[in-house]
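Aim 2 progress. For Chemotaxis protein, the working sequence is reproduced below.
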Amino acid sequence: MALFWPHGGWYGILGALAFLAAGAYAWLQLSGGKSDPRAEVHDYLDGRQQFAEEVTPVWCRHIESSRSQMEEAVSELASRFSTIVDKLDDTLRLSSAAADSQDGASLSQVFTHSERQLGEVVATMKSALASKHAMLTRIRELEQFTRELRDMAEGVASIAAQTNLLALNAAIEAARAGPAGRGFAVVAQEVRNLSNRSAETGRSISDRVGKISSAIVSACKAATESSAAEDQAMQSSEGTIDAVLREFRNLTDAMAQSSELLKQESVTIKGEVGEALVQLQFQDRVSQVLGHVSHNIGLLPGLLDENRRQFQHGATLEAPHANALLGELEKTYAMAEEHAVHRGDQKAIAAPSDEVTFF
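Predicted structure tokens for this construct:
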């Protein structure tokens, strides 16, 4: 796990070292009666220098390692979030394209077009059914014609029977007349023959008309039954088509609502991920702060070494001044937040701005 020290922790370390040096100085003042105090001070300063040179690099390495690990992790996280945003963009684009049907028509337009086409099919079926009804009417008219033909054939048969009866009476009268009526008897016989032939023709016509009438009646009955079945099928088809259209309308409405909801949620998620990417920019600020503190800690051995060399050259031993390191640290600040932390401004620290102010 990467280690992270608050800014105040580093100042505490520097203050502790300064306090340690001040304590050593006070001890030297109180122990002035001992033999060769400068040698002991030299030993103390050498030990302090060794302490700083050994501890400071470890601190710096830990800080740099933590900063590096955090930078890599946040960079990887930002990269993944960026990929998610790209995929959300693709999803939104595909969703918008899918929400529109061919030629840019919406689902509602597709439904309207389908409804119109099915309506045309139903209208065509109704037109065909109306044509069959008209044909059935004509067939029924033919049935009336066959009844008239049957009546006419019966009339011909009746005339033939009456003619035959008259011819028979004429033959009887010719026989009574004897030789004088022989010619009339021949005519009467021919009339009788014609009457018989007319009666036979009338019977033949009546038989044919009967067969035709029977066929027409059967055809009319079948056509009537077929028309009734087609009417029922037409009503059933209309009901089925209406039910399918209602279900299709519900489906298209649900799809449109789902697509719109998905689009809204995707936009929301995209915005949240984008906000997360903005928030991840804290890594840049933290990395800069850690770099500045690490560099400032690296100056500590040099400061202590300079203090030791001054004492070795005969100068009075003085405690290291924190202002020197703090001043160098303040020179590296690039953000207002760093200055606020340096001053101990808790309000500015507790409520950092989303935007970074650089100097």
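Residues 1-10, 354-359 have pLDDT under 50 and may be disordered. This observation will guide construct design in the next reporting period.
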